[in-house]
Amino acid sequence: VPPRSSTFVDFNDLTPGRESLSIAINTVKGRINAIGRQTVAGDVAIWRAVPASTDWFIPVPNGAGLKEILIATPGNVEVDYQVDAFMDSGAEEALATGRLNARGQEIFDLASVTQGTAGVRVVSTGPVVVTLRWVGAEVGVAISTGAVSQANRWFLPGASVPEGGWASIVVLNAGIEDSTV
Known about the structure:
Shape: globular
């Protein structure tokens, strides 16, 4: 990638017919940032690439549709994981557990558990990346990578309400004590 520029890579040409990909981006020299882009029926989702970690948090808005948590490992070793969910009905630790093969991925169907507001924490024995994928009539397609930490201060740019639309936020407290926001 030349200095102060970007390069586009079309995976439809490189891997035609693949329904699901996890892409590891390894630089030999220099430092980069990357985003993914997916188009479904005219809707576009954009999400950022993130470094792998062993602890992830994802707030999940309420609503119907396909809501999936994608857990993928870029490493060359097997990784065990645990999915904890925080819902209106309470916390469910170890709602799902499993093992990822080297450079493998697993999809957890969150919509089968709740259509309401939720939060998910994924812990693992090795580095993974966790992403929320949501496809539904009311939202189109939305994809978001998780966060690797909780903080007492966040900034959410671009949260205005577009004409004819709506906006909301979900605040996740995965801790054992109350938070005042």
